[in-house]
Amino acid sequence: MGFVKKSDDMEIHGDERKRERDLPGLLQQLQEADPAIRRWAVRDLAQYPEAVPHLIDLLNRETVPFVREAVFTSLVTIGSLSAVEGLLSCLRSDDAALRNETIEALQNLPDLVVPFIDKLLADPDSDVRILTINILEALKHPNVEDWLIKVIQQDPHVNVCTTAVDVLSEVGTEKALPALEALKKRFPGETFVQFAVDTAITTIRGA
C-alpha cells in the first residue's frame, strides 16, 4: 500500500478545498457523502494530533480504499502515542484488509510500537499475537530476535510459534538455534512444525 503522497493526485472536484479548513470544519467533513471531501479532510487533519480519535473512528467504518489510505498516512504523520494505541485497536478488527494495512502503518512507527510488544505477545487472543509477530518482521529493532525466541519457547499455540519460526528464518541468527531445536520437542506430533523448524535452521546456518 505505501503511505506516501502521490504526485499524480486525483482531481479536486468542485469547491471541496474551499470549505472550512480549521479543526471543527475538517471533522465535520469526515461525515460527508463524497469520499473526495473526506479524503482532503483526512489529509489536512494530519496537522491536528487531537484528531486521532476521529481518524480511528473513520478508519473502522471507511470502505473507500483511497480514503482509508489517507487515514493511515495522516495517523503515521501525526505519529503520537494515541495514534499507535488507536492503530493497535484495529488489530482486533474482523476486516482482514484493515488488519494488514494496520500492520504496515505500525511498522512505520517502530519507536512508538516497541513499548507495546511484550504486552501484545502475551495477549489472550492468538490472532493478535500472530499479527504482532508480523509487525516484528519489518520492525528493524535489536530486540526482534529475542522476542521471537521467547515466543517459540513459551507460546502454547502452534500457529503462533510457526509464524515466529517463519520470521526467524529471515532475521534469526545462530542464537536462535537452541530454541528452534527445542520447539520440535514441544510439538512432536506436528509435522509442519518439524518441517518449518528444519527449514529455518538450514536457512540460518547457511546465512
Describe the fold and architecture:
The protein is mainly α and 207 residues long. It folds into two domains: 1-112, Leucine-rich Repeat Variant, CATH 1.25.10.10; 120-207. The protein contains 13 helices and no strands. Helix 6 packs across helix 9 and helix 12 (177-186) packs antiparallel against helix 13 (191-206). The two termini are 30 Å apart. Mean pLDDT is 92; it is low at 4-14. InterPro entries: ARM-like, ARM-type_fold, PBS_lyase_HEAT.
Number of strands: 0
Low-confidence stretches: 4-14
What gross morphology would you assign?
Answer: elongated
CATH T-level topology of the largest domain: Leucine-rich Repeat Variant
- Biggest sheet: strands, sense, closure? none
Beta content: under 5%
The portion of residues assigned to helices is: 55-70%
CATH architecture group name of the largest domain: Alpha Horseshoe
Tally the structural domains: 2
**SSE ordering:** HHHHHHHHHHHHH
Whole-number average pLDDT?
92
Level-1 CATH class name of the largest domain: Mainly Alpha
Number of helices, counting only DSSP H or I runs of 4 residues or more: 13
Structural class: mainly alpha
For the record, give the distance between the C-alpha atoms at the N and C termini, rounded to a whole number: 30 Å
Radius of gyration over all CA atoms, rounded? 20 Å
CATH homologous superfamily classification of the largest domain: Leucine-rich Repeat Variant
Organism: Gracilinema caldarium
InterPro entries: ARM-like (IPR011989), ARM-type_fold (IPR016024), PBS_lyase_HEAT (IPR004155)
GO molecular function, one term: oxidoreductase activity
Pfam family, one: HEAT_2
